[in-house]
Hints:
Helix content of chain A: under 10%
Number of strands of chain A: 11
Distance between the termini of chain A: 40 Å
Shape of chain B: globular
Helix content of chain B: under 10%
Mean pLDDT of chain B: 96
Low-confidence stretches of chain B: none
Order of helices and strands of chain B: EEEEEEEEE
Number of helices of chain A: 0
Structural class of chain A: mainly beta
Number of strands of chain B: 9
Largest sheet of chain A: 7 strands, mixed
Structural class of chain B: mainly beta
Oligomer: heterodimer
Strand content of chain A: over 45%
Order of helices and strands of chain A: EEEEEEEEEEE
Low-confidence stretches of chain A: none
Largest interface: A-B, 23 and 24 residues
Amino acid sequence: EVQLLESGGGLVQPGGSLRVSCAAAGFTFSDYAMSWVRQAPGKGLEWVSGISGSGGHTYYADSVRGRFIISRSNFRNTLYLQLNSLRAEDTAVYYCARGFIDGLDIWGQGTRVTVSP
Amino acid sequence: SSELTQPPSVSVSPGQTARITCSGDVLSKKYAYWYQQKSGQAPILVIYDDTKRPSGIPERFSGSSSGTVATLTISGAQMEDEADYYCDSTDISGDQRVFGGGTKLTVL
């Protein structure tokens, strides 16, 4: 079964850092670009970042460029998002999703990140 | 502009046809994608490449696109179709994805 499982969310203070992960199963991970999408409480979806299958190309929304870093381990079938210099407005559920240019066809259940003193 | 605009809400009676629009200049050059998100759940892809339906998505879901407007149509909407629906696409450069603001579909 194709599956994505996020982990690593939690409560962090403003200015702090956190790394969230997404474990993939049921497909050849390295064949697919991957993305992170977030959803603030009561708000819509916001694409955050994408990465090519090899990991050689990375892409960011303007709102997170320079603060967040996307990476992947094709050996471990895992996608990562390093969140630095966190702000209150980064509070959201963070979803990983399979795909980037050609749409997002499989989504995980999300991990919640709360930025608060 | 890479912005995508959706109506905040659409209401239909069961069995009627629901149409949700998504407008943006980028749609004249890039494909539209549609996602369904039920309360408390992760989104799922219901339409890709403007008109294609992933396996497992009911045939009552269809998509179309003309010029700068993409449309998601649910023919014979059912109570279980109540959800938020989001369109998305890529920006002109292909370096970012952009979502519409979402449309809450009410079937009652």
